[in-house]
Design goal:
Layout lengths: L1 H7 L10 H4 L9 H6 L3
Length: 40
């Protein structure tokens, strides 16, 4: 749930960016498919 919140769900308080976009860690809203296929 935390990863979906941080990468997939835009936040109104962040001008519709995700928290990871606001932190400069990504430049786009991720799809759930993209999140689940990401390997660490």
């Amino acid at each position: 749930e935390t990863a979906i919140h941080n990468f997939v769900r835009p936040h109104r308080g962040l001008k519709y960016n995700t928290p990871m976009m606001a932190a400069g860690k990504t430049d786009h809203v991720w799809s759930v498919e993209e999140l689940l296929s990401f390997s660490v």
